[in-house]
Amino acid sequence: MNEPMASQPQRAANVIQMPRPDSVADLGIRRSFLEELALKILYLTGPLSIVELSEHLRLSYRATDEIFRRIREGQLCEVTGVVKNVPHLNITTQGRARALELLSLNQYTGPTPVSLSSYVHQVKVQSVRNVAVHPPDIQRAFTHLVVDPKTLAQLGTALNSGTSIFLYGPTGSGKTTIAETLTKVFALDKVWIPYAVEVDGEIIAVYDPVIHKKVDDPEQDIGDRRWVLCERPAVLVGGELTIEMLDLQFNTIAKFYEGPVQMKANNGVLIIDDFGRQRLRPEELLNRWVVPLDRHIDFLSLAGGKKIEMPFEMFVVFATNMAPNALVDAAFLRRIQTKIRIGNISAAQFHEIFRRVADSGKLQYDRSVVDELIHVIQHSLNQPLRACQPRDIINQIYWAARYEGVPMRIDPTSIKRAAEAYFLPAHREDEVQG
Predict the structure, then answer these.
(1) Which of 4, 127, 346, 430 has the most crowded CB, counting CB atoms within 10 A?
(2) 168-204 pLDDT, tens per residue?
């Protein structure tokens, strides 16, 4: 019996409310670690009420009160007053000395981390492999692009694998745009991202407001506030990628770790753009990710050399304008089971892209003018039609009109000037060779 087609992805694990821990015992973090974190916050922030301290820690009032009582018993803080039955706290001289010692070891004073076991469990629950993608989902995400049905079907099939994909083809064919659009297939999904993870007393910062798009949902404050409700993350790295970026980044001043790019991309999409042009060689990435791509686990190194096991639960997109079999060996290609060539476009696709770009700029689309442009590209310049060309040509027209201070128009004259500025001229025998 065939399953009915869904208008949206089936999100098996989306979104389960994170229950709020009501006591220190429920947090899964050592009590001494929590007391040290609270003391550092008191030292740096100044006098706080228990309510304010609980906001800094992202803990319940009851759990925060337990922590306060412990550090008060150690004479590290004192009550300076009570307002509406809520104690106000201040650090003592002894507490200041202890806080300075702690800050010399670790300067983390953010929200309370979650345990490694909690993080591993939640990432697996939210895995992209749990998401079923159907044609309507692909059509919704790609409605703004001109992509042939065969390629769309291949992309949807690849997403259902929840693992990885190779997008290859000539420059300007739209590989990066397609890769970024793949993330929109998951746009309706929400996942929980922790502020930080604690491992044997070490802190790994995970939540990154630049990467993770927080979802405004008043109900998230009801649950465990150590987690942030976000859209599925989308991380793009290009030529700047190094082998060091694939491991924990230790801040020698703050003395805690920043999660690597793949950890921040967990439960989302990681795009390796311009693959093969990074500062690390493709075979280095192969050796580093053979196990993660196969078994969905990664091994990260702490400063002392200890290895910790982390989930590798993301959809990885490798985009390149180089031949895949010239970049990596067969073993790596086998692990990327879907390879899709994004090639040059047809005249009909060129027209449609040009029309859409013109419409977006409220410009008059003239089919005969675009036909002439296509003829020039294919015959006079002997070049293929590429998806980037319509927007690039219209940009040239815009810049020229802006320079001259005249209204922007798409006509034979503006098209000719734009093409002359954009394309390299055909090779001539009398050109100077250098």
Answers:
(1) 127
(2) 999 999 999 999 999 999 888 899 999 999 999 999 9
Give the Cα-Cα-Cα angle 89, 95, 99 (nearest 5 degrees). Answer: 110
292 by Cβ neighbours in 10 Å (0-12 / 13-18 / 19+) ranks as buried
Contacts 24+ apart (CB under 8 A), 304-312: 306/200, 308/116, 308/199, 309/120, 310/120, 310/263, 311/119, 311/120, 311/123, 311/124, 311/266, 312/262, 312/266
* pLDDT exceeds cutoff 60 at 434: no
Whole-number Å distance between alpha carbons of 135 and 142: 11
| DSSP single-letter state for residue 170 | S
Give, in degrees to the nearest 5, the angle at Cα 155 between 277 and 360. Answer: 85
For the segment 250-290, what is each residue's pLDDT rounded down to a tens digit? Answer: 999 999 999 999 999 999 999 999 888 877 888 888 788 88
**Domains of the chain, first to last:** 30-110 (1.10.10.10), 118-341 (3.40.50.300), 347-421 (no CATH)
Rounded Cα distance, 53 and 38, in Å: 8
Count of C-beta atoms within a 10 Å radius of residue 316:
20
